[in-house]
Amino acid sequence: MPKTGTTVTTGPIWGSTKRYEPVPGHPGIRFPVRRVNLSNGEHFDLYDTSGVYTDETAVIDVDAGLAKTRDAWPRPEPIDGAATQLVWARAGIVTPEMAYIAAREGLAPELVRDEVARGRAVIPANHRHPESEPMIIGKAFAVKINANIGNSAVTSSVAEEVEKMVWAARWGADTLMDLSTGKDIHLTREWILRNAPMPVGTVPIYQALEKVKGDPTLLTWEIYRDTVIEQCEQGVDYMTVHAGVLLRYVPLTAKRVTGIVSRGGSIMAAWCLAHHEESFLYTHFVELCEILRRYDVTFSLGDGLRPGSIADANDEAQFAELRTLGELTKIAKSYGVQVMIEGPGHVPMHKIVENVALEEELCEEAPFYTLGPLATDIAPAYDHITSAIGAAMIAQAGTAMLCYVTPKEHLGLPNRDDVKVGVITYKIAAHAADLAKAHPRAQERDDALSRARFDFRWNDQFALSLDPDTARSFHDETLPAEPAKTAHFCSMCGPKFCSMRISADVRAYALENGLTTPEAIEAGMSAKSAQFVALGSSVYLPVRPL
Amino acid sequence: MPKTGTTVTTGPIWGSTKRYEPVPGHPGIRFPVRRVNLSNGEHFDLYDTSGVYTDETAVIDVDAGLAKTRDAWPRPEPIDGAATQLVWARAGIVTPEMAYIAAREGLAPELVRDEVARGRAVIPANHRHPESEPMIIGKAFAVKINANIGNSAVTSSVAEEVEKMVWAARWGADTLMDLSTGKDIHLTREWILRNAPMPVGTVPIYQALEKVKGDPTLLTWEIYRDTVIEQCEQGVDYMTVHAGVLLRYVPLTAKRVTGIVSRGGSIMAAWCLAHHEESFLYTHFVELCEILRRYDVTFSLGDGLRPGSIADANDEAQFAELRTLGELTKIAKSYGVQVMIEGPGHVPMHKIVENVALEEELCEEAPFYTLGPLATDIAPAYDHITSAIGAAMIAQAGTAMLCYVTPKEHLGLPNRDDVKVGVITYKIAAHAADLAKAHPRAQERDDALSRARFDFRWNDQFALSLDPDTARSFHDETLPAEPAKTAHFCSMCGPKFCSMRISADVRAYALENGLTTPEAIEAGMSAKSAQFVALGSSVYLPVRPL
């Protein structure tokens, strides 16, 4: 590809070093770890999505692209025409990708294989994207997050998008979607794919629309099919296909407050109405399956009729499409193609769980991949927060991957800073859900950080946090001096009085004097309180007659 | 009080004008409304907490303070020694404050009176704070939010705190707590009270501690009592009292990950251990009741043993204290004093509902007032977000007021910008809960904003949002031109293609051609799709034999 001269952000995350650990049973295959080095001599290893960009020993050349590591891994033979993780898992084969994921998540390889075989998890890993580090999307595993980037007709350059991708990986994006709609779509995607350590997804209809000058009515199956093949060849790992937007569902949106807000959904609705024909994505779905399974590209069945407002949540149009996605899920799996299902959107808190329950029932528990949802419509510029509330709750209910929302949602395209805020916010939602689901090891990080906080190991607290740079800078705003990094107080109370310090004193006093049980402390109490205790735990203060 | 020369932020919120509406049955009493003027000629009235500061006709003089409006309102006679909203409500009296609140919330005065009489709602309104605009805290009403401000030994000036108060009111803070711990505590509080349109709360033990040079062991009941009286006289509307931290509960915290993180709780724990006596807040609780009821100051019974980490959530120490708060609630109510209960803290999502259920059971549904809770410990610098997730969920479960958390939590004291981010974030959590609870009128705002969004009435969308200034500036980053404020596209898709525009076209086409039902559209379908439809809604694509 042409020289970009692009430079991206490199170097380790503050307080951490990059390490590679062996994948058991697969000599020569290693997975990445972010090791946080603590001031008390201990260390804490974190799941690492950042790629070689955080390896200070690595030589980064965006023009050359990343090493095509997976090309050297043994690949099982195709089964019945399909060379996918799904068919291999069904055949009882633990692929190198599955072993890698098991080691990375700290779980058993057999669990990974079984969840993939059952269609409850997917491993988006196009054979043509050997640069990617295998990861898994499924409710039995850590909740994942996706970052959307992409230029449009009015903004952004290719180099900017590559840096956004690296930046998103650095802060924790598990997958990336390139939603470019402007010119240079193919070239932008090429640079992203060759440098992306994570799986990359697209919405092929966007590029197909560019090929017909943006007029949806001029789209044809042939143009779309050729675009899909072009992207499969390039290495796209999963594709959003809005094959559930059927002609007869379109009128169900006519009386909505916000109609159809999905780009792909509105394109297909316009095509269906103009031609008075059923969607070519639906009528040619089997041919799509036959294309995707050759590369092991994963379907992300799009929710083209998702609600775009609280008023439209969980309505007839949304759930009619979901039923069709359930039918298509069975077809795709019967062709050996991996499938996940996209979800809303805008949903009030009390209507969130129904979305997960219905998706699992209709789609045989295929991984659910939701955009938020936003829990209210009234906070443009803060929709990373309105959606983090919905995202945490829907992930607790079983959603496997959360598509981030940035502060620019509804207002503009995210810049580099917005991408970071969106990623960190969604790491919070995903981790909160992992805690609520009691995911193995999830709470270890909270406990390690809280111990550092209670011990006033400020730098350890920063290093263990999702964003050490910002935590450090906030602390420095009020207590800039380096000694303050070890001071046994903070700016909230100041040096004279500190609740944490008193609490530490209380603990020490109690332990030293053996006052670690109510009995012990009561035994040592003075007459007055002894008298009180003699009355038992009930209140001896008189309740005033009303 | 001495001249401050302080100036604060004034003027209407962008797109809105200040109005005052009459309180039915109370000539001369009016309540404030923020009227959003829409470009389509309609208008939308919002609950308004901002005080006269957003009234462009008002003359603001911080040194003179706000008008003592409530002094002119008729006040019922004391009953049985108590002059509180609680005893009047029990006597069947609808006070001017209750009528004001009913009009402000759009609910029946009798509902307000009944909820207060039952102790399920409180109206913090010290007779000595006549500048305040009455508001109510209870699960039957809109969820409220509290903003904490206050200087410390190491930061901030008095003038800064007054501006923070006005700024918090502007963006939606329903109540304010002055948590100052440094010098000039009395003076800072005086300036805040005389200029605060909302109820103001404090934690008297902080000032008492200053009087003994920060050594908790030197505290006495007399010093504390005199501090409480001083603050009652000044006009504080509600006070956090950590009377549930009993001597025998202290050892229960010895083995916690983060011990005691509440300042008040750690002060009292230190005192109890040092003196080997029961907390004077507990042993003198009846005297406290007799003081507070003279002014109608509301108890906010503090959770001094709240968990400071995910590991300590819902533990024995926390719930032991809650049981004692339940006993104290009954005593306070028997003395005619209004009571609310403070809650955690740090709680994982799956342990949130238990907190509300237990509080309602033990405290006779006294209003619950929670700090977040934070749903994870791992994101310092983003704890407004980690806690907004927990706050929205706990409010959905029945919490009446949410104490905000700013991005500086755990790291430093919030500046003016942090205060705004904290307030807006908590308005999101509170509104999301109002939607989930189907609070009357809550969804009207979402619908109005979403209609504006779908109609490309950009300025209306901004004006109806929680933060019009930031929404506007984000939009202008990518499409600065004024025409773009009415353009039928945005920077996400650009002018050539826009999903919202296509969706609008689809809707228009469907309506014009009467294609508003599946039947109608099917009737008009071409042969091919007719043939498809003849097969019914089931898929005609072959499922491949496995």
Q: What report would you give on this structure?
A:
Chain A has 546 residues and is of the alpha/beta class. The longest helix of chain A has 21 residues, at 416-436. The first copy, chain A, has helices spanning 85-90, 96-105, 109-117, 158-171, 185-195, 204-211, 221-234, 263-275, 280-283, 285-295, 316-334, 352-362, 383-396, 416-436, 442-454, 458-464, 468-478, 499-512, 518-523, 527-534, and strands spanning 16-22, 30-37, 43-47, 121-122, 137-138, 144-149, 175-178, 200-202, 238-241, 298-301, 339-343, 368-371, 401-403. The first copy, chain A, has two domains: 123-440, Alpha-Beta Barrel (TIM Barrel); 443-535, no CATH class. In chain A, the strands form three sheets. In chain A, strands 6-7-8-9-10-11-12-13 form an eight-stranded parallel beta barrel, surrounded by six helices. In chain A, strands 1-2-3 form a three-stranded antiparallel beta sheet. The N and C termini of chain A lie far apart (85 Å). Helix content of chain A is 41%, strand content 10%. Chains A and B meet through helix 8, helix 11, helix 13, helix 14 and helix 15 of A and helix 8, helix 11, helix 13, helix 14 and helix 15 of B. Chains A, B: Its cofactor is [4Fe-4S] cluster. Chains A, B: One of its GO terms (molecular function) is phosphomethylpyrimidine synthase activity. Chains A, B: It holds the Pfam family ThiC_Rad_SAM. Chains A, B: Residues 1-20 are annotated as: Disordered.
